[in-house]
Amino acid sequence: MKKWLLALGLLGGLALAQGKITVWTHFGGPELDWLKKQAATFEKTSGTKVEVVEVPFGDIKQKFILGAPQGQAADLVVTVPHDWLGEMAQAGVLEPMDKYVTKGYLGDLQEVGVEAFTFGGKLFGLPAYAESVALIYNKKYVKEPPKTWEEFLALAQKLTTGSTFGFLYNIGDPYFNFGFFKAYGVEGVFGKDAKGNLDPGKLLLQGEAAEKALGFIRDLRFKYRLVPEGVDYGVADSAFKDGAAAMIINGPWALGDYKKAKVDFGIAPFPTPPGAKNPWGPFLGVQGVVVNAYSKNKTAAVNFAKTLVSGQAQVSFNQAGGRIPVSKSAVKSLEKDPVVAGFSKVFPLGTPMPNIPEMGKVWGPWGNAINLAIQKADSNLKKIVEDMVSEIKKAIGR
User: Fold this and answer.
1) Which of 14, 56, 70, 353 sits at 20 to 30 Å (Cα–Cα) from 174?
2) What pLDDT, on the 0 to 100 scale, is given for residue 18?
3) Residues linked to residue 327 through DSSP beta bridges, in sequence order
4) Cα distance between the two ends of the chain
5) CA-derived radius of gyration, the chain
6) Do 229 and 362 lie in a common domain?
7) Tell me, what CATH number does 201's domain have?
8) Of which family is this protein a member (predicted)?
C-alpha cells in the first residue's frame, strides 16, 4: 500500500513538473491543423500538455493585455504582428526572450525579423513569418521582371493600351508607398536613440526626401499616366486578378486569389525609381510567437515557441498555408517555391514597420498627404509635407 501511494505521489509530482500550457491562436483551416499537430508532437516529446484555443485576431491584443496580469491569458500566442509589440511590452505582459536563446539560434532567423521583434533593446518574441509588398507581374505580358526604372516605364507604358493597364497599385495608401519614400532617402518613420531604440521625437518622414517621394508618386499619375484617378486597392487587385493589369504592387495575402484566377505570376523587387539614392525597399510586417510574462510554465512555453519557429517546422507551416518563413534554413529548403524565392529577395530590402505605439498616429496624416499630392499635377509638395509633419507631431505630443 505504501509503495502504491509512493508511486502515485511520484507520478503526481511528474505531472506537476511537466505541467500544461495554453496557446491562443488566430489560425484556421490547414494552419490550425498544423499547429495542433505540432502541439501533439510536443506533448509526446516533452510530457507537457498543450491546449490550443482559437481566438479572433482582432480580440487577441486587448484580451492578452488585460488578462495576463489576472492569470486569464494563454501562456503563449501564435502569432502576433510585430507592430503590436511596443504596446504589449510597455504593458509588461511579454516575457523577454533574450535569456532563452543563443546567438547561434538567432543566426537562423533573418536579421530583419529579429529586429522587428526587438523593443527597448530586448527581444520580446520569436519571429516566424513575414510579409511585404513586391512587384507582382503577369507572365502573359511580362516574361522577365524589369530590373531598371527605364525598363519598367517602357514596359508599363507600352502595356497601357486602353483595354489593359501596364501598372496599377493602391496609390493613396502609405503602406504601399513606403518603398518610394525609402528610395528617396527616408530611412524609416522614426530615428533611433543612442541605445538603438526607435525615438518618436526623431521624425524622419519629412524634408526634401519626403517631397521627392511624393513627387514621384504624383508623377505616376500625371507625368507617366500609369495610375488613373479612382484607383485604390480593390480596383488594382481586381484588374490584376482579371488579367487586365500587367503589373501590380501587392503582397502574399493576394496570391491565393491570383492562383484561383489562373494568373501565371512572378514576384520581384520594384526597380529603383528615377533620381533615387537608395534601392526601393518596402515595409516589412513580421509575425511571431510571444510568451506571457505571467505564465507559470515559462520554460515549457518558450520551448514550444522555439519548436514552432525552427526551420523544419516552418517548412511544414509554409506547406500548410503558404506563409513565407524568416528561418534561413526553411527558405533554403523551399528555394524552388517561386513565392518564397520571390519574396525572400524582397525581405532583405525592407524596413520593419515601427513597433512603437506612436506609429498609430502617423498613418492618418501620412495618407492625407499622399492623397493631397496626387490631386493635381502642380500640388504644393513642400507645404503638404510641412503640414503632415505638424499634424504627426501634434498627434504624438511632440
Assistant:
1) 56
2) 62
3) 109
4) 73
5) 23
6) yes
7) 3.40.190.10
8) Belongs to the bacterial solute-binding protein 1 family.
Domain count, the chain: 2
Q: How far apart are CA 152 and CA 204, in angstroms?
A: 28
Q: Distance (Å, rounded) from C-alpha 230 to C-alpha 236?
A: 10
Q: Which residues contact 299 (CB under 8 A, 6 or more apart)?
A: none
Say which residue the cell 510567437 belongs to: 289
Q: Flag residues of the chain having pLDDT under 50.
A: 1-17
Please tell me whether residues 221 and 270 are part of one structural domain: yes
108 is a domain residue: yes
Place of cell 534601392: 279
Task: Report yes or no on 9 lying in a domain.
Answer: no
pLDDT at 15: 37
Residues 6 or more apart whose Cβ sits within 8 Å of residue 332: none
DSSP structural state of residue 297: -
The backbone torsions φ and ψ at residue 92, rounded to the nearest 5 degrees and listed phi first, read: 80, 20
Q: Which cell goes with 363?
A: 498613418
pLDDT in tens, 45-59: 999 999 999 999 999
Cell for 225?
499616366
Pairing of strands 190-192, 118-119: unpaired
Q: Are residues 208 and 83 in the same domain?
A: no
Alpha carbon 75 to chain centroid, angstroms: 23
What pLDDT was estimated at residue 13? Answer: 36
Q: Count CA atoms within 13 Å of residue 145 on its CB side.
A: 17
What is the extent of the structural domain holding 112? 20-131+284-352
- Supply the pLDDT for residue 398: 75
Q: Is the pTM of this model over 0.85?
A: yes
Same-domain status, 104 and 26? yes
* 348 lies in the same domain as 382: no
4 assigned to some structural domain? no
Q: Are residues 43 and 171 in the same domain?
A: no
So what's the pLDDT on residue 104?
Answer: 82
Q: Which long-range contacts (CB under 8 A, 24 or more apart) does 199-203 make?
A: 200/356, 200/358, 200/396, 200/398, 201/398, 203/389, 203/392, 203/393, 203/398
Contact 341, 335 (CB under 8 A): yes
Distances (CA, A) of 298 to 2, 81, 292, 352: 34, 21, 8, 27
